[in-house]
Amino acid sequence: MSDHSKTADAVASADAVAALDWLSVLFARPPGADAVASHRRGPVADLMTRLGGDADLAWGIARMRAALDGDEDDGAAAAKLERAYGLTFEGIGGPRTAPPYESAYRGAGPRRLFQAPTAEMEALLDEQGFTVAADIGLPADHLAVELALAAWLASAGGPASAAMTRRLADWVPDFAADCAAIDRDGFWAGAAAALAALAVREARLDTARQDDRT
Fold first, then answer.
1. What is the pLDDT of residue 120?
2. DSSP string across the chain
3. CATH hierarchy code of domain 3-213
């Protein structure tokens, strides 16, 4: 086994899968008070500590933690994150937004939703026997849905996982740049930055794995 393969295998860890799972839930909806408590001093805080020790993810995780470090109680902190979520992703503060949909970044027109990426993701979900629950109400190319599929595929490995990672790496960095320009508090910008770093690195390592096999 080459050094490249050893590095790639180390990165494809339980924490990488846990990070995708965690971020999937996080980008689906802002955390409530109980979830904020877990981010501050519970199981999610432990995961963030481990991820923060990764040089590629450290900056994004540090921004998230700084945004959680205020004096507010968990409920007040949750309300603050909810406001920032609305401003950043839903355009509540005006037209400037970072839409968490692949179509907005890979579609035929700027910021247009429900384009080819939505249909592509519907097909990918169908291939794996999944559908988006009606009560969730998210299109198939919403970041939360893509991350949930990526986490499931990563736990199994294989070509489908590598393709999903490359898919994320193709658009999440642009999404993260928009988040950085909008989210002044830094929690959502940090989450997007950490995700972008993880996706780009995993895509690069997937390419290295393929090179080692040839």
1. 95
2. --HHHHHHHHHSSHHHHHHHHHHHHHHHS---HHHHHHHHHSHHHHHHHHHHTSTTTHHHHHHHHHHH-SSS-HHHHHHHHHHHHHHHHS-TTSS-----BTHHHHSSSTT--SSHHHHHHHHHHHHTT----TTT---TTBHHHHHHHHHHHHHH-SHHHHHHHHHHHHHHHHHHHHHHHH-SS-HHHHHHHHHHHHHHHHHHHHHHHHHHH-
3. 1.10.3480.10
